[in-house]
Amino acid sequence: MIDLKNLTITKARKALDAKEFSAVDLASAYLTEIEKKNPELNAYLEVYDDVLEQAKTADQRIAKGESHPLLGIPLAIKDNIVIDGKRATSASKILQGYVAPYDATVIEKLKKDGVILLGRTNMDEFALGSSTENSAYGVTKNSYDLMRVSGGTSGGSAVAVSSNMALAGLGSDTGGSVRQPASFCGVVGLKPTYGRVSRYGLMAAVSSFDQIGPITKTVEDAEIVLKVIKGKDSMDSTTITDETYPKSDVKQKYTIGVPWDLIKREGIDLKVKENFKEAINRLESFGFEVKDIKLPNCLALYYIINFAEVSSNLSRFDGVKYGLHVDGKNLLEDYILTRGQGFGREVRRRILLGTFVLSAGYYDAYYGKAQLARVVLQKEFKEVFSSVDLVLTPTSPVPAWKIGEKSDPLSMYLADIFTVPANIVGIPAISVPSGFMEVEGKKLPLGIQFMAPHSGESVLFDIGKKFLGEK
């Protein structure tokens, strides 16, 4: 019997190459877990019917002597990453029945490596939210406490990995959407440097923030997945090469900046603060220096740009080209009825606010100023990284909250305070498990976040492994 709980990509690779078990055995084990757990957790929206066929093909390649990092490794894929011939809905009714006619670049790379695609996972509709409660297909529950959220927007992939329904998963990170659910579910989540991974085939939410990233059990596994999916892509002009930015050097001792002014503010759980201080003590025991730094609260800046780009990107869903269509008396009514019935409340809210900040009377006052402030923030981070190697924060100011608890959207937006800066300035960030806190008799996972300069993934992997004792 395969020990899925302690299995990692590294261990699975060795076992598959040594013929200790086959790709079919491994895929079957995950399908069994999915059948048993998914009805309650709702992590998968669809499990593909060709999983075992994919596994047989992987076994044939292994039998011929092939060995690639992800050959025969089962992954879960977020529902906004398209796969040729498979349904993709971004967890929205407006894309009901849509079948993708091509592969996203990351899927193309994964297929070439021989990965097994298990299915598409639940998410906040069009990657807008922080809890995977905004899905048209129901909330994804946290495996540590079924009364609590999984985090968002990549909650389905995070739960799939944490509950042993996938060995790893892909999510997309717009303002923390890989890192925050990873923190809530006790796993590792990486947001790469903007442009490190192609966005071709990722349904756009906020194009200047979005980045595909892995959710895994270990930092080493996240590094393995990134090496496969990264790279320059002619289909995405924003992609970068390894030479685009100066290389960050791996060191024996790091200087870590901590923005205490943000961490000491109200709204951050006392137990989260205690856990964070314990993490700092651990890092100092390695000989690392911890310095106090200043960083602004970027939430207002983030959400103005977020709303504006959402309004623009989602204008293509009109009921004419693809997806849901509702008949009205005329073309305008077709649009109104289709978008009204097809989009959920959070999506409609952001479209309206985005249209407002982009309108002729308010463009300069809101969106124009936000873009200027973004340039200033990029300069501030550049200055910060001239004196420290990494920036450290909690991943989230609170642990996973109860389903339905944050009915006020503003309270949910405030939970993104630590994760959004990395997306605004395009730097890489990683969330790693940092312990647990007990709430109402349940042990809830907590995470800490490291941010590095552009192209600093190697530093994130190094310090993440050291923190978790992976080396």
Give the structure's gist in a few sentences.
It contains 16 helices and 13 strands.
Q: Could you describe the 3D structure shown?
A:
- By secondary structure, the chain is of the alpha/beta class.
- The chain has one domain: Amidase signature (AS) enzymes.
- It is built from 16 helices and 13 strands.
- An 11-stranded mixed sheet has the order 1-3-2-6-8-7-12-13-11-9-10, with helices on both faces. A two-stranded antiparallel sheet has the order 4-5.
- The protein is globular and about 65 Å long.
- The two termini are 28 Å apart.
- The mean pLDDT is 96.
The residue fraction in helices comes out at: 25-40%
The major β-sheet equals: 11 strands, mixed
Shape: globular
What name does the CATH topology carry? Amidase signature (AS) enzymes
Number of helices: 16
How many beta strands in the DSSP annotation? 13
How many domain modules? 1
Q: Tell me the strand order in the biggest sheet.
A: 1-3-2-6-8-7-12-13-11-9-10
CATH class, anyone? Alpha Beta
Secondary-structure element string: HHEHEHEEEHEHEEHEHHEHHHHEHHEEH
| CATH homologous superfamily designation | Amidase signature (AS) domain
Rg result: 21 Å
Amount of beta strand: 15-25%
Structural class: alpha/beta
Average pLDDT reading: 96
* Low-pLDDT residue intervals, each spanning 5 or more residues: none
Distance between the termini: 28 Å
CATH architecture: Alpha-Beta Complex
